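Protocol step 4 of 6: structure prediction from sequence.
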Amino acid sequence: MSVRPSLAESPLLAMHGIEKSFPGVRALKGVNLTLGRGEVLALLGENGAGKSTLIKMLGGVYLPDAGLISIDGIDVQLSNPSEAIATGIGIIYQEFNLIPGLAAWENIFLGRETSFGLVQRTEERRRAEALFAKIGVAIPIDVPCGELSVAQQQIVEIAKALSQDVRLIVMDEPSAALTPQEVSRLFEVIRDLKRSGIGVIYISHRLDEVFEIADHVLILRDGEVVGESATEVLTRQRMIEMMVGREIKNEFPKHQHTIKGIRLAVNGLGRANAVRDVSFEIHAGEVLGLTGLVGAGRSETARLIFGADRADRGTILLDGVALKIRSPRDAIQAGICLLTEDRKSQGLVLDASVRENFGLPNLNEFSACGIIKEKRERSAFANYVDRLSIKIPNQEQLARNLSGGNQQKVVLAKWMEKNAEVVIFDEPTRGIDVGAKYEIYMLINELASQGKAILMISSELPEVLGMSDRILVMHEGRITGEVCDVANATQQELMELAVA
């Protein structure tokens, strides 16, 4: 292989022979990684491949058990995050590191907000607005981050990294909650960084992005490097095969099912200006895709149907019967469930075991006289562990210690046990690797084949086009278009409807 142009001189970053083990797990096995100045290196692999462990060493979170890290030819030991920042390394972690009670601008400059003991509020607010303008997304800078959407929090994290004086920046799934339009603007920012000689390590499960923005690809599997190549000589299929270690012929395995009568009917649903006069129907056995830009009202619509927010107006009918949904309890009892966009804060109790998470919405089934029948609960959950291929050492594993794909499967398992008739998936594959995505898609097919009504909300347009029977597009709280001929629809068509 010819020398990468960016490495004609000494590399900006070199990681040699990196080893890391945790109790019972060898996470990294002699990993070598190099990054040139002004280069974008895509770091790929399934969840659990070792990507996060590797970048946490750059962020000063972990120390390697063996191996060397050098920046600009000088060996460094990054013992804590402060040392990493001082070295010029910026990290955008997949798991947000924001203080919910602080405003966006306060989070961006937290720890760097004083000058001669004074907080430069006016200057920091101005700089925050300039950063958001550079990224191309308007964020209300005074709203506490805990009240922002997942996508807005992602933009705050990106702005926080860009506000630092970095020579190397790591982006771990930075686009997972962003729409194509916002991803396009993010890529313009990355190209600006390249022109400034800043190196970028880009981690994503969205392979279209890798081909668009990355110069070089490094692939990990089970803690080892299994492939390294210039992006331009790789095919999508070869990339997937190296990541998962097996052949996946159809990335979006959409199955055709018999679509029958209307199961869910939503009429004139609204809440303030977030959701305005939304009406649609989902049939038994149908997968209805719902997409749109951030802030379009997609998740807000799902929350109204599920009772997480109270609607100001509108009606919801299930199998022709009008429902009074005042809370999630009402929705669950009626047969409606929601896999939330933010599974960690809204879909799981992270410090509870996976068994306990599975049992929470099914306590009536697994308890008698206020006593949980743990044996029955364990037996039921064991069936789903096998059926959904949930990778856990035992049922007492804490939910927070699972990969994103396995967390999503635990959430899905509890609702499958509930046997809901309407299943709402809000960004079902956000931050999940291609292998786990495939399994989630197969589960969606299975539910549809059982006559369930599926609402799949996604900002990933290939996913929407690949898995939906019909697609709705929202903009500023309203439905602005419907696509029935999905087989012949294009991403451009959906984007035009999303900005209508």
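Step 5 (inspection) to follow. The radius of gyration is 23 Å.
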